[in-house]
Specification:
Elements: E1 2-5, H1 11-17, E2 23-26, E3 37-40, E4 50-52, H2 70-77, H3 79-86, H4 121-124, H5 129-149, E5 153-165, E6 168-180, E7 187-194, E8 202-207, E9 210-217, E10 220-227, H6 228-237, H7 262-273, E11 274-283, E12 286-295, H8 297-306, E13 318-324, E14 338-344, E15 362-373, E16 393-394, H9 396-402
Parallel strand pairs: 10-16
Antiparallel strand pairs: 1-4, 1-11, 2-3, 5-6, 5-15, 6-7, 7-8, 8-9, 9-10, 11-12, 12-13, 13-14, 14-15
Helix pairs in contact: 2-7, 5-7
């Protein structure tokens, strides 16, 4: 895929945002890892107009990633990463809670909704950098509202992660599924596993009151919990305004519980910590809008100061989120939902300064396939999690800090 930049960029930023490569691979239907399709790569980028998207064919500098799963990106992109690098024994923070499924804003998000302000080259060339940033912020806010308050959906997950072990580059393929009830319930279920293995590598379940995360690392179970109900109660007690999601254009309430875990936390982290811009793209005949995020300098400096004076190579410095502009066939669903998320790290200092974005260390390529609407609300048992007698870590304090609830 290629991203058509919808605003002018200087030569330096252009060099840092272009991708190059000979081919891109996309999963075949039904996510069969043995039947992957190879698609032609993009043509050379036109100055100031587009950069390429979707390249994991080559990686010039391997990355360090401890957990090769969907949640790993969430952890690396969030304050949880900083908390773990500075205080190994500190209690992790927790995601916000959701107790009131009723949300009037859900009436405004429909299955056929689409981004309201698409990139336009002629118009955007006349806008200032600040105006372009504001347009991108609005698109991302609308996407979060669409997922949190809109109709429920399910999809298959396909993720490829680059890691390095003992100086050897390794590629890990993970498969899984994602179910999001939406309608302001904060209920979702996600699980992933390494292709060819039956054991879940990650499972994350939220019933709107509690969020459980189960990770199997090196044969050891790691369990954490977030009291979403507590977070939402404190959110309400502080009298937070209803219009809590900026740049959407209409009053909408997004409680902390709805921004914790899964897709919404990844997107909310991008909204908080990254400078945004917009582009367009296409893949397999599907038109896409791409929200591009580059790590803010203030956030970069904070990470460096808390991680030994150097930005960790596995911390994403750029995120590309591709959003469908049409419904998928034959389901007639998917418009306005993300279909691909890419995370890039920073290239080593000895890299060629003229290197294109394909050399910026793609950490992960995540695709959401076979998007389908939920025909009926899942049974409550679907979101129950049995922790048994296993010990777990409470992450609620971290999310209290994140959402300024202390």
């Amino acid at each position: 895929m290629k991203i058509d930049r919808q605003h002018r960029i200087d030569s330096e930023s252009q060099k840092s945002m272009q991708l190059s490569g000979d081919f891109a691979t996309f999963p075949a239907k039904h996510n069969d890892p043995e039947k992957m399709q190879t698609c032609p790569g993009p043509t050379a980028a036109k100055p100031g107009r587009h950069v390429n998207l979707g390249k994991t064919a080559r990686l010039y500098r391997p990355v360090l990633l401890g957990i090769a799963v969907f949640l790993a990106l969430l952890i690396l992109c969030s304050d949880r990463f900083l908390a773990n690098t500075t205080q190994a024994n500190q209690q992790p923070a927790q995601p916000p809670a959701n107790t009131a499924p009723e949300n009037t804003a859900s009436q405004q998000a429909t299955a056929g909704s689409s981004p309201s302000d698409l990139p336009d080259p002629d118009r955007d060339s006349k806008l200032s950098a600040e105006q372009l940033q504001q347009r991108a912020e609005r698109q991302l806010s609308e996407l979060i509202v669409r997922i949190a308050n809109g109709p429920g959906f399910r999809c298959d997950l396909w993720q490829r992660v680059r890691t390095q072990q003992e100086s050897k580059e390794r590629e890990i393929l993970c498969l899984g599924s994602y179910l999001h009830q939406g309608q302001g319930t904060a209920r979702f279920e996600m699980h992933t596993q390494i292709a060819g293995r039956r054991e879940d590598l990650l499972r994350q379940v939220s019933d709107g009151r509690l969020l459980w995360t189960s990770q199997m690392i090196a044969g050891r179970l790691n369990l954490s919990r977030v009291d979403l109900g507590l977070l939402d109660d404190r959110y309400r007690s502080k009298g937070k305004p209803v219009e809590s999601m900026p740049n959407v254009g209409h009053p909408v309430e997004i409680r902390p519980s709805m921004l914790t875990g899964g897709l919404c936390e990844i997107l909310d982290t991008m909204r908080r910590d990254y400078d945004l811009s917009l582009g367009t793209s296409d893949a397999n005949g599907q038109d896409l809008m791409v929200i591009i995020g580059n790590l803010k300098n203030s956030k970069r400096e904070a990470i460096i100061s808390q991680s030994g004076g150097k930005l960790p190579p596995s911390y994403p410095t750029r995120i590309n989120v591709a959003v469908a502009l049409q419904n998928d066939q034959p389901t007639g669903f998917g418009k306005g939902l993300p279909v691909q998320i890419e995370h890039f790290g920073t290239p080593p200092e000895d890299d060629d300064q003229d290197a294109t974005i394909s050399r910026r260390n793609m950490i992960s390529l995540l695709q959401l396939n076979n998007l389908q609407p939920l025909k009926a609300a899942p049974l409550n048992d679907r979101f129950k999690f049995d922790s048994g007698d296993n010990e777990f870590i409470s992450e609620t304090p971290r999310y209290e800090t994140r959402f300024q609830l202390r």
